[in-house]
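User: Please predict the structure of the protein below. I'd like the answer in structure-token form so I can feed it into my own downstream comparison script.

Assistant: Understood. Taking the following sequence of 559 residues as input:
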Amino acid sequence: MAHCAVTTPSPYLSTRRMLGPMHTMTHSNHVYDSKVVLRRAWVSRRSNCKHCVQAAAAMQDEFQERDVVDAVISSGNQATDKKRIVVVGSGWATATFLKTLRKQQKDSDVSITVVSPRNYFLYTPLLPSTITGLVEERSIVEPMRNLVKEKGTFVEAAVLDVDPEKKELLCEKTFCSVCAAKKKNGEKTGEHDHTFVLKYDVLVMAVGSVTADFGVPGVREHCWFLKSVEDAHSLRVHLNKRYEQAAQLTSRMKEYPEEATEKNEELRKRLLNVTIVGGGPTGVEVAAELSDFVLQDMVKLFPEVPLEDVSISLMDPGDHVLRQYSPSIGEYAQKLFLEKQHVDIMLNKRIVGVEEDVLLATNLATGEEERLPYGTCVWATGVQPHPLVKGLKAKLEPQPGDSERKGFFVDEYFRVQGSQGSILALGDCAVMANPKEEGRPLPATAQVARQEAAYLAKLLDDGSMKVQKESAEQPAQVVVKETTAPFQYKHLGQLAYLGHDEAAFDLPVGGDKGTLHGLAIGHLWRGMETMMQVSPRNMSMVFFDWVRVKLFGRNMSDV
């Protein structure tokens, strides 16, 4: 075997020096470039040459600490002929964009980099099902690296700020648990700075949205949200504890008659109450899933808890729930909730304040102020722009009709107005008028984000949209062929789970004639939620979750 010539400094020197622009490792006739050193390092370690083994070991150790991200950043910031497209976010728009995009060819003139503090895609429509253990949390998440491989690179970091003039992102690497604890306590997180700058030619903003509190005092302090896996997990653990406390209290009241007081009975009812604020799809599905759990599993798992003390309330300021759907669906949902699901419907209630155990509401029908007691409050009222969107909008040219409550105004090719064609926006953070709805903006739904992202990916694949490199005459920007058809949203209808294995389907036709509901639609809903997963792995896991629950019941463990 030919001896291995290693043209690097000592393997014990820092990996940053070892991975300099001129670094190569030559083994026989093979050359290992610094850009692919991670992939080649293990090959070198199999060699009998001690120099290769030592070099590869040193590289791996330091890369595991921090240089994986550094390598991606440095390669993305180096001067290159490729146009750099940076996508911010890991939600519906980003996942669909990556799935639709063709694999990157060696001669491609574009490089794709995805930046997000969350290294997975989350299938949000099934979040209500995870609260009760119907669907496991890992079943509805897909690692971003599975989606981005062979199409670009992924950087796990939070974008702190955007400089549209310099075309730079100020990012912060995701902290490990040790560094996060140190940062929280105000301590130093080590000798390495967790912030870095990432350059771009074209920026694609797909950061989604955040839960809207509408300025109501007390919401952030006393209510539970449902926007992330962490939200769903925390809420599930919280409900478990409340049910356990109620069961223990009931046992003590039976064992010690002196504790069977009216005060303890009221406490038990409060422990067993869940009030959902917001009668949209999320609020309705949370109420439906909780009701199913109570009627199907809680009666078996907590036999000591009196069922009549368990209460679920659904509150909305409108005169019926599911106002985004045809009126007949809202009426059917209310009827089903009252007759089969034992969910109390509270309409015409606008929340003006949240205190511990009490909601302050205005009755819109009578104008009276009301104090409504609650046990656990789930806030599902709507969304508002991400803080990063607000910060970037302040640096762009103001647009007519704009406000802080809105996202980026985009044209029919998703170019952000006022950005000179260098910034695109997709999904919840984009505001595009719908010509079929008298110019009203497209709704902030997964269906809209998926269609927008698929359209953008196809434009880049077929060459209809190109990125012009920055020159002395003009900045880097997106240019679209004149013959390119503008984006047109096609509404495919919408489903909502109503509980008791029933669902409603609002068909993409006008009026109440285009509505279906019942058990058959419930099976259709489950089938659609399974097939809409982003990977075969997710599809199989969600399918077997449905089967598992039918056979063995829900898993309400804290883990």
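That's the full token string. The two ends are 53 Å apart (CA to CA).
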